[in-house]
Structures are given as structure tokens and as C-alpha cells.
């Protein structure tokens, strides 16, 4: 019977230790549940911030793509306008050179006419001079 009482005492001790252990584990479980709830809330906040950041990056990438497309379009237009400007400048230079050539031609014609008139006048003066032979 001593053995049975000893075992009973041992079981009571183990039962008490189990109750204390169960109480401690229950306390830890409640703390962990509170901690889990807090961590879930924190995780949701972090995920919300991440989603905001991801939307911002996506929007930024989209804006970057739009700007790059616009820059490419403007660059192409700039090249076209530069080519057109060079063509117009060349045409203006050709027109100016043609105008100068026409003015030079008019001057040449006028000078040739003046030379002819002067030659005729010199010839006329030589003919009027007494004793001088005519001819050049």
C-alpha cells in the first residue's frame, strides 16, 4: 500500500506540475495570440505600404515610358525640322547667289555698253582732231 500511496503522491505531484505547466502554457498561448494579432496588423500595414510603393513604381515606370516616347517623337520631329531648315537655307543661298549673278551680269552689260560708248566717243574725238590719223 505504501507503493500505491507513493505512486498516488507521485501522480498528484505530476498532476500539479502539469496544471502549473498548463497554466504557464495557456498564459504563453494568450500572449502569443496577442502578439500574433499585433504582428498581423503590422504585416497588413507593411503590405499596404508595399502596395502603395508598388503602385508608385508602376506609375513612375509608366510616366517614364510616356516621357521616353514623347522625347523620341520630339527628337524625330527636331531632325525633320533641322533637315527642312538646312534645305531652306540652301535654297536661300542659291537664290542669293542667283541674284548676285544677275546683278553682276547687269553690271557687266552696263560696263560693256559704257566701254563701247567711250570707244565711240574717243573715236569721234580723234576724228575731230586735225592732223591725227583715225584708227586705234
Identify the notable features of this structure and list them briefly.
single chain, 136 residues, mainly alpha, 2 domains
Give a short summary of the structure.
The protein has 136 residues and is mainly alpha-helical.
Description:
It is a single chain. The protein has 136 residues and is mostly helical. The chain folds into two domains: 9-90; 93-125. The protein is built from one helix and no strands. It has one helix spanning 2-128. The mean pLDDT is 91.
Global shape: rod-shaped
- Distinct helical segment count: 1
Per DSSP, what share of the residues sits in E-state strands of 2 or more residues?
under 5%
Mean pLDDT: 91
Poorly predicted regions are none
Largest sheet: none
Q: How many structural domains in the coordinates?
A: 2
* N to C succession of SSEs: H
How far apart the termini lie comes to 173 Å
What is the tally of beta strands? 0
Radius of gyration: 56 Å
Broad structural category: mainly alpha
Helical residue percent band:
over 70%
Family: Belongs to the taxilin family.
Coiled coil: 1-128
Keywords: Coiled coil
GO molecular function: syntaxin binding
What's the SSE blueprint?
Elements: H1 2-128
Keywords: Coiled coil
Family: Belongs to the taxilin family.
InterPro entries: Taxilin_fam
Amino acid at each position: 500500500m505504501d507503493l500505491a500511496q507513493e505512486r498516488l503522491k507521485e501522480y498528484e505531484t505530476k498532476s500539479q506540475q502539469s496544471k502549473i505547466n498548463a497554466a504557464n502554457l495557456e498564459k504563453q498561448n494568450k500572449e502569443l495570440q496577442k502578439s500574433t494579432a499585433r504582428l498581423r496588423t503590422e504585416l497588413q500595414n507593411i503590405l499596404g505600404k508595399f502596395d502603395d510603393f508598388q503602385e508608385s513604381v508602376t506609375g513612375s515606370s509608366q510616366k517614364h515610358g510616356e516621357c521616353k516616347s514623347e522625347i523620341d517623337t520630339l527628337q524625330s520631329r527636331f531632325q525633320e525640322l533641322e533637315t527642312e531648315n538646312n534645305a531652306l537655307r540652301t535654297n536661300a543661298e542659291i537664290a542669293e547667289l542667283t541674284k548676285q549673278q544677275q546683278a553682276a551680269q547687269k553690271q557687266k552689260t552696263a560696263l560693256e555698253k559704257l566701254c563701247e560708248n567711250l570707244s565711240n566717243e574717243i573715236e569721234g574725238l580723234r576724228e575731230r582732231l586735225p592732223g591725227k590719223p583715225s584708227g586705234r
